């Protein structure tokens, strides 16, 4: 599940990684069978039973959008009583009629292939391709290892999960094995070791996206020297790459995008490039090569056509002659921030088709010479570059371009109208600039667009109606601009759309109903606009992520949204929604984040929310009108990290089962009507950092006896209750988080998704909602209770404390001089108690203090003078 969610998240938010990544796959050659060859009856029957065992999807698998041609249902031609050798996707032996090839790539198949499937009776198979289908998160069963004559096996992009069965290594005659991009597939150490040792005839191996984090890199040294194609991209590999120079026949090597887990020493690299004399494609992006001299690249084979070294931490000057090599078609150097060099002013390599210098120090002269040398370019990446001469209009002359990235350059003014001449453009990235004004009308000509990123600019005006003509579009991100008006009504024409983000604009009117029924939509992000109307109805689609927060939507939550089986994030906060929350919400077993806060929802909180899924990490139902009780049963497998029920009318007790949520970091139950004693069991939560129980009817003593579990607590708010007895000195003695002021400033966010935690807080006398919580913020608010006794000296240990409010209690004794040790304190309120004596002069050492209140006590003498205290009014 985690791997699938990672993929959903990467689709929504990390598609920058796909900017210029080609997706070559191992291709099988299937010869058409002559209709005169008669198929064997038993094999024809097995094929028909195999067809019957699977269903057909009306829409292609979520992976097929990366590929062409368009998927079609090959099994539609499979008819009983006809010769199976004439069926689509079938190859038969010309002499025996045995089925030797099954090619069903991108055939809209859906379901699970179990060990009893009739497929495994086709013992004569030599080539099997089931790629780009959807096998529903099922496992690759061991029976795939029974095809003893198999030479080619392709199960890529097919939704398989779990361990690769070791039986795959029985296929000793395999020439080509492709299990790539099954998000959730894992290779154990022993399985990969057997692949390396047993499949000695292997020529092509692609395990990209297979999780191999535990596989020792030394096992790469056992791979067959016959390999010509090796692809281990994004496999979570870690460690130093060993000497694999024995793979001297390699034509293509890709161990890129293992996200900094790999490194290569200069000696290993030098040996590799000298021995790979036939290499044509070398992709090492994200391999740490910081010690490798760029000059050593000159030893690469003259056959080299594709070189990808993005984010390799290369430093210094890149060799000029690499760029001018006549065979070179692809050069990616993006992300090497300390890499520079000079681009030729004339006589460029005419073979170059793809070039990315994004996030490097190469000087870019975007002038007529630059453009005239690159008219054959199909991919150009110049995000965050060092422009010396800039004429963006000239880019319109690169009419062969299909991918163009110009993000993060601080470009200003209007988007060049000449871009409308780029009729082949499929990927356009203009995000994180300062473009303004309306989108040029010439964009209407770019009918091949598949990805359009315009987020984080200052573009304005309406969203052009002709966008709905971009029927190939699968990612549209116009967020963080100033677009106005309605969402184009004919958005239903964008039937391939996977990701729609129009957030943080000035859009108004109702959301077109067709938005909720887009058949392929994974992510719908429309938050922070002025949209009105009702939600839904939603149709059965693969939606994973919905954020419609901070709009003016009204009505009830439609039951159809609670039937989206794949939904992982649902954020509908800060609207005008009414009605009850149906217990059907607990049918969303994949849900990780549920935020319905700041609406006018009422009724009871469904009791099942405490234990309906092990995936839920965020539950925010604050600022509504819920009544009744907090769900009583939080299961032992509770994964909650953030629970916020603040601002409702909840009564009775705080359920002890909350202590089952061992990952809980924030608990906010403030502003309710809870009548209970202090929930001492919360001290057993090892990750708890923020506890807000303010403005309830809690009573009795605050028992906090643990010597361990309060170590991380750094926001502690029990204000406006009826608590009594001494202040909880046990907490002050054990709060290590408040004792350590040397903390890196970060914001508390949910795992897997960009969701910021929030909490209500009285800060310097003002009630606010902290929509982002800094890890530096440390507060104690025990005001408005009936605490008695003296202020413990141990409070002085809390050196990271920024806010301390003990006002409106019944505290006695002196103000402790040890408070001077609170060197980061910004607000101190001890007012409305029974404190006596003088204000200690030592408090003037609190140089960050901005709020100081000690009024309505029995103190004597003047307020000390000096430093910050000179700024305080005598009424303090």
UniProtKB/TrEMBL annotation:
Subcellular locations according to the entry: Cell membrane
Annotated signal sequence range: 1-27
Gene3D superfamilies listed in its UniProt record: Ribonuclease Inhibitor (3.80.10.10)
Gene Ontology CC terms: plasma membrane
Keywords noted in UniProt: Cell membrane, Glycoprotein, Leucine-rich repeat, Membrane, Receptor, Repeat, Signal, Transmembrane, Transmembrane helix
Domain Leucine-rich repeat-containing N-terminal plant-type residues, every copy: 42-93
Bilayer topology annotation: Single-pass type I membrane protein
Family: Belongs to the RLP family.
Protein name: Leucine-rich repeat-containing N-terminal plant-type domain-containing protein
Species name: Manihot esculenta (Cassava)
